[in-house]
TrEMBL record, chain A:
Keyword Transport: yes
GO molecular function, one term: ABC-type polyamine transporter activity
Species of the source: Pseudochelatococcus contaminans
EC code: 7.6.2.11
Highest taxon, organism lineage: Bacteria
SUPFAM superfamilies: MOP-like, P-loop containing nucleoside triphosphate hydrolases
Taxonomic path: Bacteria, Pseudomonadati, Pseudomonadota, Alphaproteobacteria, Hyphomicrobiales
Subunit structure: The complex is composed of two ATP-binding proteins (PotA), two transmembrane proteins (PotB and PotC) and a solute-binding protein (PotD).
Catalytic activity: ATP + H2O + polyamine-[polyamine-binding protein]Side 1 = ADP + phosphate + polyamineSide 2 + [polyamine-binding protein]Side 1
Gene name of the record: potA
Protein name: Spermidine/putrescine import ATP-binding protein PotA
One Pfam family hit: ABC_tran
Similarity field: Belongs to the ABC transporter superfamily. Spermidine/putrescine importer (TC 3.A.1.11.1) family.
Automatic annotation (TrEMBL), chain B:
Keywords attached to this entry: Cell membrane, Membrane, Transmembrane, Transmembrane helix, Transport
Superkingdom of origin: Bacteria
UniProt-listed Pfam families: BPD_transp_1
Keyword field contains Membrane: yes
Protein family per UniProt: Belongs to the binding-protein-dependent transport system permease family. CysTW subfamily.
Record protein name field: Putrescine transport system permease protein
CDD domains recorded: TM_PBP2
């Protein structure tokens, strides 16, 4: 292979994505997980909600569950909280199998997706409920409730009943009520869904701080992948009751294990093709649309010549040119089909000769551009060989 | 404010509103005014008027005449007749009620029986309503039907049937003797126990239905949330279920308590000679002694007794609502 540049070795020494904190017990074979789902299946009368799922979560980990609606995220949590028993398999918390332990004795608190606030109690009483059950002294309850109210910025609403609060305020009460007992494991089912962007981002960081400071283990469900990216140590992408990939957010984004994960997390362009040549560090892929070949870095997975593959390309890793560059092996040519201006970014939708639309994003690093790209302009997209992710399934 | 020209007034100013409602026409306006008045008119015709008649009677004196009391307002005398009658009214019947221990005793006994029955009804009705609310959705219509079903036979027949069950040679004693639990037949009929059985049986739907209505709306995830926060189920029942079912409990209790206080048929048929209830006393005064004025006084007192709990309930309800503001 002539064009192969050997920068793959250099890549191995680089980290993937951003690393939030120095915390990776899952890489340590000696570390013992705090929560273990061992081949857990949950079947409702005629429907398998969780299918033979195995998952380890470590102490002090911030773990996010991502997945489409109905994929079994809530069911997974309810089994740990004790509201559902697995049909098969077992769940361990520490060294203890949890099945048979009633919910009120499990060192786990859950924030319900529907909030489940007590309508006959005011905000303060709702939040204090868990401490009252444990017989915590009255003045300590008062202190901790006041502190928690401050944390979720609800102090002025302490005396209101839940039906006198907005959706976002109710959500924060639910969060506060689950938080206040500082359980070993906190289960949050879409904790921030109803908050506005600013409050959500504030609360995200509050949650992260809290989790680190109190040494709790968080299992969080979210629909918002950006949120998962920001908060999580690791993310699990679920589909139809199974886990498709478990990895730190950066890795899930930059190294998706499958086409499903690549398409679920963030925007992605998929170019279909067939392996034409396998080199030491790179492969050549013949595009299915007949418009040439691509040179892609080899991933960990072995591939063979003739194999059908998909090349996943993130929009921000693509570069737009007016004139055909000569020094790059990877070129996709087409016309600008649509433009979306987002302020910080501009999204260009480029239509290739085959009709496929490729999404390219470009940071608006300058306020004025001499000759801006516009509709129907002929453009060429280039990308580095390390930008493409080779997906075999 | 005379300096503001009329044309400048905003569209929702009072003057334009008047114009708008004038356009609706007098007929429409009359109907609109009448709709909220309907319940009041209903109350006026079917409750207040009879009550005034009874109250007027309670201020009269018995007489061997037709009707059996004096004075009777002589409308032919016009205003004089009314004034003449008014001057003869007095509260003697009410003082009579306090003189004879029988009336106070039967009032108290009625309240006692009604209170105990209401508690029994709650104890029996709550688990039933709870089970119904927890039942699978597809079974609920059938269960509701079964609660309402007894209404399809006459109340009187159902109470008579209890005589057949409870009498010494009745069904219950036969069964108990048959399986050897007792040697001698139990004397249940013509005791307060029989009244309790009859009352609980007859009023159960009035307790179960409002309870079911509130429990059916209960969000069961609240109980999960309580458990999740360390509250065992029995405590969650008292801290979450009961407070949330309170409106249903109050409605059911009132719906049962009030008519039970004035109950006549059940004590008459199932009770004994010394089961005192104010409904029975009232009917004795009316039909046995033909003392209509005194009976009317008893009826007025009964009404006052019964209105008491309603007022307390209303007061509690408003206070509860105000507290949640
Ligand atoms: N009690 C139940 N009986 C039957 N099926 C159920 C029951 N509870 C959940 N399911 C089904 O199990 C599947 C998983 O439900 P689950 O609530 O875990 O989804 P989820 O991933 O939390 O979805 P969402 O993101 O919408 O909250 C769904 O298809 C749901 O219909
Ligand atoms: Mg869910």
């Amino acid at each position: 292979m002539t064009n192969v540049r050997t920068d793959a070795r250099k890549r191995d020494s680089l980290a993937i994505g951003a690393v939030r904190r120095d915390f990776a017990p899952w890489l340590d074979p000696a570390a013992k997980p705090l929560i273990r789902y061992e081949a857990v299946t949950k079947q409702y009368s005629d429907f398998v909600a969780v299918n033979n799922l195995t998952l380890n979560i470590y102490e002090r980990e911030f773990f996010c569950l991502l997945g489409p609606s109905g994929c079994g995220k809530t069911t997974l949590m309810r089994m740990l909280a004790g509201f559902e028993e697995p049909t098969a398999g077992r769940i361990l918390l520490g060294d203890q199998v949890v099945s048979g332990i009633p919910p009120y004795r499990r060192p786990v608190n859950m924030m319900f997706q529907s909030y489940a606030l007590f309508p006959h109690m005011n905000v303060e009483k709702n939040i204090a409920f868990g401490l009252v059950q444990d017989g915590v002294p009255k003045n300590e309850i008062a202190d901790r409730v006041a502190e928690t109210l401050r944390l979720v910025q609800l102090t002025p609403f302490a005396r209101r009943k839940p039906d006198q609060l907005s959706g976002g305020q109710r959500q924060r009460v639910a969060l506060a009520r689950a938080l206040i007992k500082r359980p070993k494991v906190l289960l949050l089912d879409e904790p921030l869904g109803a908050l506005d962007k600013k409050l959500r981002s504030e609360t995200q960081f509050e949650l992260m701080d809290l989790q680190v400071n109190l040494g709790m283990t968080f299992l969080v469900v979210t629909h918002d992948q950006e949120e998962a990216m920001v908060m999580a140590d690791r993310v699990a992408v679920m589909d139809k009751g199974t886990i498709k990939q478990i990895a730190p957010p950066g890795q899930v984004y930059e190294q998706p294990a499958s086409r499903y994960v690549a398409e679920f997390i963030g925007d992605v362009n998929i170019i279909e093709g067939k392996i034409a040549e396998v080199g030491e560090h790179q492969v050549r892929v013949t595009r299915s649309d007949g418009a040439g070949t691509l040179l892609i870095d080899l991933q960990n997975e072995p591939v063979s010549v003739g194999q059908e593959v998909a090349v996943a390309l993130r929009p921000e890793k693509l570069v737009l040119h007016r004139d055909l560059p000569t020094d790059t092996p990877n070129v996709l040519s087409g016309d600008i089909w649509d433009i979306g201006y987002l302020g910080d970014w501009t999204i260009y939708l480029v239509q290739l000769a085959s009709g496929q639309i490729v999404r390219v994003s470009r940071a608006n690093s300058r306020r004025f551009v001499e000759q801006p790209l516009t509709w129907d302009d002929k453009v060429h997209i280039t990308f580095a060989s390390e930008a493409g992710v080779l997906l075999t399934h | 404010m005379s300096h503001i020209p009329a044309s400048d007034s905003p569209p929702d100013s009072p003057s334009t509103q008047i114009v708008a409602s004038a356009k609706a026409g007098p007929g429409t306006r009359l109907v609109r005014a009448l709709v909220p008045a309907l319940p009041f008119i209903w109350l006026l015709i079917f409750f207040l008027t009879p009550f005034i008649i009874v109250f007027k009677m309670s201020l009269s004196e018995p007489a061997t005449a037709q009707p059996p009391y004096v004075p009777v307002i002589d409308w032919s005398e016009g205003l004089n007749g009314l004034l003449d009658a008014l001057s003869q009214f007095n509260f003697e019947n009410f003082t009579l009620l306090t003189d004879d221990w029988l009336y106070a005793a039967s009032a108290l006994s009625s309240l006692r029986i009604a209170a105990i029955s209401t508690i029994l009804l709650l104890l029996v009705g709550f688990p039933m309503a709870y089970a119904m609310a927890k039942a699978p959705e597809k079974h609920k219509p059938l269960l509701l039907m079964m609660v309402i079903l007894p209404f399809w036979t006459s109340f009187l027949i159902r109470v008579y049937a209890w005589i057949g069950i409870l009498k010494p040679e009745g069904l219950l004693n036969m069964v108990l003797q048959g399986i050897g639990v007792i040697d001698q037949p139990l004397q249940i009929l013509n005791t307060d126990t029989a009244i309790f059985i009859g009352v609980v049986y007859s009023y159960l739907p009035f307790m179960v239905l409002p309870l079911y209505a509130t429990l059916d709306k209960l969000d069961w995830t609240l109980l999960e949330a309580a458990q999740d926060l360390g509250c065992p189920p029995w405590r969650a029942f008292w801290q979450v279920t009961v407070p949330l079912a309170l409106p249903g409990i109050a409605a059911g209790a009132l719906l049962c308590f009030i008519p039970i206080v004035g109950e006549y048929v059940i004590p008459e048929l199932l009770g004994g000679p010394d089961s005192l209830m104010i409904g029975k006393t009232l009917s004795d005064e009316f039909f046995r002694n033909r003392d209509w004025p005194l009976a009317s006084a008893v009826a007025v007192v009964l009404l006052i007794i019964v209105i008491g709990p309603v007022m307390i309930f209303r007061e509690l309800e408003t206070r509860r609502l105000e507290k949640s503001r």
